[in-house]
């Protein structure tokens, strides 16, 4: 399960992009993570953010958290995956 320290790091690191939504889903949200699990983070913006900034943010989060982060934008979600992700989602912002 994602802890409060990790949530704070995610919140502080993503704040400069002013996201409309940040949340964790997948194994960390369900408390089923393993040693090699990545941390799945859903992020959404009400404004345009370029791909290089998103990749940089993903790398920065991975480094700060010490966990491989998979950053997924809400716009990139397939409609069939959205309900599955939303079911597990722990909203951070």
TrEMBL record:
Keywords recorded for this protein, A-Z: ATP-binding, Magnesium, Metal-binding, Nucleotide-binding, Nucleotidyltransferase, Toxin-antitoxin system, Transferase
Cofactor(s) listed: Mg(2+)
Coiled-coil intervals: none
InterPro entries, sorted: NT_sf, Polymerase_NTP_transf_dom, Type-VII_TA_antitoxin
Domain of life: Bacteria
MF annotations from Gene Ontology: ATP binding; metal ion binding; nucleotidyltransferase activity
Domain annotation Polymerase nucleotidyl transferase: ranges: 8-89
Homology family: Belongs to the MntA antitoxin family.
The protein's name in its UniProt record: Polymerase nucleotidyl transferase domain-containing protein
Source organism (scientific name): Parapedobacter pyrenivorans
């Amino acid at each position: 399960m994602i802890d409060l320290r990790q949530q704070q790091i995610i919140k502080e690191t993503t704040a400069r992009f002013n996201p409309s939504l940040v949340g964790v889903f997948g194994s960390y949200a369900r408390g089923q993570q393993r040693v090699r699990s990545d941390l799945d983070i859903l992020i959404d913006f009400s404004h345009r953010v370029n791909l290089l900034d998103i990749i940089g943010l993903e790398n920065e989060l991975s480094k700060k958290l010490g966990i491989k982060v998979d950053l997924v934008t809400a716009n990139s979600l397939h409609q069939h995956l959205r309900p599955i992700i939303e079911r597990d989602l722990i909203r951070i912002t």
